Amino acid sequence: xxxxxxxxxxxxxxxxxxxxxxxxxxxxxxxxxxxxxxxxxxxxxxxxxxxxxxxxxxxxxxxxxxxxxxxxxxxxxxxxxxxxxxxxxxxxxxxxxxxxxxxxxxxxxxxxxxxxxxxxxxxxxxxxxxxxxxxxxxxxxxxxxxxxxxxxxxxxxxxxxxxxxxxxxxxxxxxxxxxxxxxxxxxxxxxxxxxxxxxxxxxxxxxxxxxxxxxxxxxxxxxxxxxxxxxxxxxxxxxxxxxxxxxxxxxxxxxxxxxxxxxxxxxxxxxxxxxxxxxxxxxxxxxxxxxxxxxxxxxxxxxxxxxxxxxxxxxxxxxxxxxxxxxxxxxxxxxxxxxxxxxxxxxxxxxxxxxxxxxxxxxxxxxxxxxxxxxxxxxxxxxxxxxxxxxxxxxxxxxxxxxxxxxxxxxxxxxxxxxxxxxxxxxxxxxxxxxxxxxxxxxxxxxxxxxxxxxxxxxxxxxxxxxxxxxxxxxx
Length: 476
Known about the structure:
The protein is an all-alpha fold. The chain has one domain (57-464): Up-down Bundle (Na+/H+ antiporter like fold), CATH 1.20.1530. It has 20 helices and no strands. α1 (3-35) runs parallel beside α8 (153-182), α3 (89-100) packs parallel to α15 and α16 (371-398) packs across α19 (435-450). The longest helix is centred in the N-terminal third of the chain and has 33 residues, at 3-35.
C-alpha cells in the first residue's frame, strides 16, 4: 500500500524537473522562430566548413607521414604532462589539437604551420580520423548495456533526463541571443537552437568511467548511479542529435524531416530484428584457440561500416549508425572485452589524436575577434556549466542523495570530453555552426572537461570539512 504514494511522488518529481522544462523548451523554440526568421542564403555564403580546404590537392606521402608523427608526438607529450597535473590523458590530447592549429602554432610561426599543414593537406588527416570516430562510437555503443538501463531506477532516469533537458532549455534560450551573431546563413532557428542544446547536454561516458575508476568509485553506489545516468544521457543525446541532423539536412536538401526520421526509425528496427541475431550467431561460433578469428572481427567491422554508410545515406549521420551497431552487439563480457582490446590500441594511440588535430585545425581563436563574441563565449561557458551541473545535482538531490554526493555527480556529468568534440564536428559538417561559434564550443568542451578533477577534489575537501555524507539509495 505504500508503493503507490512513492510512485506518484516520483511522477511528480519527473514532471517538475523534466516535464515543465520540456514545455519551456517548446515555448522558446516557438518564440525564436518568430523572432528570428532563417537568414537568407546569398552568393557569398561560404562553402561547408572543411578544415584546411583547397580545391584539388595531391597527397604527398612524406608530408602526410610527418604530420602523423608530429601529431602523435605532441599528443603523447601533452597527455603525459596533463596526467601529472591530475587531468585525464584525453585532456592533453584535446589540447594538442589546439596547439598544432592556427590558434597557437599558426599564430606563433605561420611559416612552420604552413610547412607542416600545406593548404588542403589536412583533409587527409580528417578522412582517416573519421574512421577513428566511427570505431570510437561503435565501442561506446558496445559498452552500453540496455538491460542495465532498464533497471537503472528512478534516481538514474530522473538525473539523466534532468541533466539533458536543463542544458537544452538554457542553450535554446541562449540561442535567442546567439542566433543573430553566430548562425550560418540559411539555417533556421529550431535546428540551430536544438543543436546548441544537444552539444551542451552530452556527457563523455568513456572519460567519466575512467575518472570513476581512478578515484576508486566505479564499484560504489555513487559510481553505479553516475554510470547509469551517463549511459542514459548518451543514448538520449544521440537520439536527439539524430533528430537535429535530420531537421538540418531537411532544411538544406529539401528532403522531408519526417522522411529522414522515419528512415532512422526503420534502420533501428532493422538492426534490432535482423542484425542483432546475426551478430549473436557470429559471436557464438566455435573458436579454435579460444579467441575471435580475424574473419569474425572483419565481419564485425563490416557490419559497423555498413551501418554507418546506411545512416549517412538516410540523412542522419554515419556516427549514429556506428553507435547503433555497437549497441546491438551481444553483451557477453568476454566478447566485449576481446573486441575492445583488439580495436582500442589503434584507436586511442593513432586515430583519435588525428581527430583532435583535425579539430584543432578547424578551431581558430582569432575568430573571436570582437567583444560581443567574447561575451557570447562567456555566456556559453556559464550556460553549459549551470545547465549540466545544476540540472544533474538538483535532480540527484531530489532523488535522495546528499548535497555532497549530488554535487559530485553533477561535476562528473559536466565532463564532455571527446563526445563533446564529436558532436561539434557533426555540427560543422551539417553547417549549423559558424567558425566562431565552433571555436567557442570547442573551448567549452575542453574547459568543462578540465574542471572536473579540480571540482571533485574541492567537493571532497568540502565534505571533510563539514558536509554530512548520507547513505545513497540503491540505484535499482
